[in-house]
Amino acid sequence: MTTQRTKIHEERVVWDFPIEAVWSLVSSFGAIQAWMPSITYCAVDGHGVGATRTVIGLAGEVKETLEVLDDKEHFISYRIKDPVPLPAKGGFGSWKLESKGENKTTIVWTADAEEVAVEAIPELQKVYEPFMKDCLAGLKKALS
């Protein structure tokens, strides 16, 4: 049974980088500290799907479990373990990459949750939007 999730925020960008270059960073579950500016610590327990990473950043310590890692479809999704200091439960982050030619890639990063009050979404977007934009800027810098 799949639980319905509510989208909190989504960032979509198209960059002039080959998909495999972007994927090599995005899919490295334990290496986000290399490009995510607000992360001061990252450690991974396990390998592949089911691995859990502990990150420390602006929101304090957060644990995330890798749920999907699909190299063929260039899709990665992770569950944010509760509790988190936000009015949402069962949070997820998902990245989908799509090649738009030899050196162009569409990146879609989605934040959603299993439980979130609709009236809380605008406030959550005020947190997620600048965070995600900052992270994407860090990723772009790492790719350059």
TrEMBL record:
It comes from the Eukaryota. Transmembrane segments: none annotated. Pfam families: Polyketide_cyc2. CDD domains: PYR_PYL_RCAR_like (cd07821). InterPro entries: Polyketide_cyclase/dehydratase, START-like_dom_sf. This is SRPBCC family protein. It comes from Cladophialophora psammophila CBS 110553.
